[in-house]
Amino acid sequence: MYKRKIKENIYLLGAIDWDRRLFDSLIPLPDGTTYNAYLIEGSEKTILLDAVDPPMADELISQLDGVSKIDFIISHHAEQDHSGSIPRVLERFPEAKVITTPKAKLMLIDLLKVPENAFITVTDGETLSLGDKTLKFIHTPWVHWPETMVTYLEEDQILFSCDFFGSHIATTDLFVTDQGRVYEAAKRYFAEIMMPFRNIIKKNIEKLEGFDIQMIAPSHGQIYDHPAWIIDAYREWVLGAPKNTVVLPYVSMHASTKMMVDHLLSSLVSKGVRVELFNLTVTDTGKLAMALVDAGTIVVGTPTVLAGPHPLAAYCAFLANALRPKAQFLSIVGSYGWGGKTVETLAGMIPNLKVEVLDPVLCKGVPLENDFIALDKLADTIAKKHSEHGFR
Ligand code: FEO
Fold it and tell me: pTM for this one?
């Protein structure tokens, strides 16, 4: 792909990764991704903003053919999908200086062995003139690692945001063309990497409120030429109250837990509570993470196996604990054969969740009438709690 013009003297570089299906060996990427780098040719200085994942470095280097000089390389984020090919760019432009935060400098030295004398570190709010264009560096930690920053191009009102506001979609479209598709991908991305840091993301969003942002150019996915909606979406994900929704991930071995889950779902729906059900043997964990962004309650359905929760349910609890969603209630339902410590084990795996644990419903073998009554009672409790807390 050749470099593509966004505005006068501002270009999109980088690579489209159509085939990638997993990020960090953890995050499913059903639609691939892009690694966006940007080139700004000022009247006096030329600057590259971020780079690409190392396997795509040749593509970036070929896009820089014809560029006689790069004065600066901005590294917004030390993760290798954006920084990994900076050493290759430095080989081609050895005079270039790497501009980054003090924390990112240390990470880039650790991760990529970039020589210390290649760096210029910038403070929060510092500016850099390229001649006719001015860049302002805004420290925005935890989007997605602690060292991250974004850059605001003052004359063109463009925010270069790296992972912040990004979406994993492989596409040749330069700008957002399908808002619904990008909303879903951006929410999935937020859930997987930023949800745990909501309090800090909130401060970062507030920090951007003082800027007139006409365009957001992220390092994954399409450019937002009408960015208000994605900023509003982030506000909702970060600040919005939980919704009147139960996320119900489950696994069942011989259908007893499945019977309980199905009954609970029907009972909740009959009481006006929305349910998102995930069979953990087949589910896309990205979809599950996305559902956790808004859920008021999480109910895990698991049989007892080998004296504890099914390993897939344990993984789900571990993931939820790491993602720290805003859900306020949690419960456990499931069937057991002769005993075990399912509830104790799962409860011990979620210390980060600030939830009230509602009485679990466990039954021996196949559920009977009393078990279904207990599930109805749990559904009643959830509906009442959601109503009392104003979840909509
Ligand atoms: Fe796109 Fe945190 O890297």
Answer: 0.96
Q: Where are the alpha helices (DSSP H) in the chain?
A: 57-63, 80-83, 86-92, 102-112, 179-193, 198-208, 228-239, 256-270, 285-292, 311-323, 342-347, 369-388
Query: Are 160 and 215 contacting, i.e. CB atoms less than 8 angstroms apart?
Result: no
Residue 146 sits in a domain whose CATH number is 3.60.15.10
* Residues 222 and 285 occupy one common structural domain: no
Tell me the chain's radius of gyration from C-alpha atoms.
24
pLDDT of 4 above 90: yes
* pLDDT the model gives residue 27: 87
> Do residues 146 and 120 make contact, with C-beta atoms less than 8 angstroms apart?
no
Measured from the CB, is residue 3 less than 6 Å from ligand 1? Answer: no
144 lines ligand 1 (CB under 6 A): yes
CA 168, CA 147: separation in Å to the nearest integer? 21
391 found inside a domain: no
Both 203 and 341 in one domain: the answer is: no
Q: Indicate whether residue 147 lines ligand 1 (CB < 6 A).
A: no
Residue given tokens 């006689």 in the structure block: 68
Cβ(133) – ligand 1 distance below 6 Å: no
Asked if residue 46 lies in contact with residue 40, where contact means CB atoms within 8 angstroms, the answer is yes
Range of the domain at 232: 4-239
Categorize the per-residue pLDDT at 38 as very low, low, confident or very high, splitting at 50, 70 and 90.
very high
Q: Give the whole-angstrom CA distance, residue 72 versus residue 169.
A: 28
Structural domain includes residue 361: yes
**Could you tell me if the CB of 79 is within 6 A of ligand 1?**
yes
Angle at 145 between CA 142 and CA 146, to 5 degrees: 65
pLDDT tens column, 259-293: 999 999 999 999 999 999 999 999 999 999 999 99
User: Ligand 1 atom closest to Cα of 148?
Assistant: 2
- Residues 308 and 217 both lie in one domain: no
341 close to 307: Cβ distance less than 8 angstroms: yes
Please indicate, yes or no, whether residues 61 and 200 belong to a single structural domain of this protein. yes
Distance 220 CA to ligand 1 centre (A): 8
CATH of residue 361: 3.40.50.360
Q: What is the mean pLDDT of residues 348-377?
A: 97
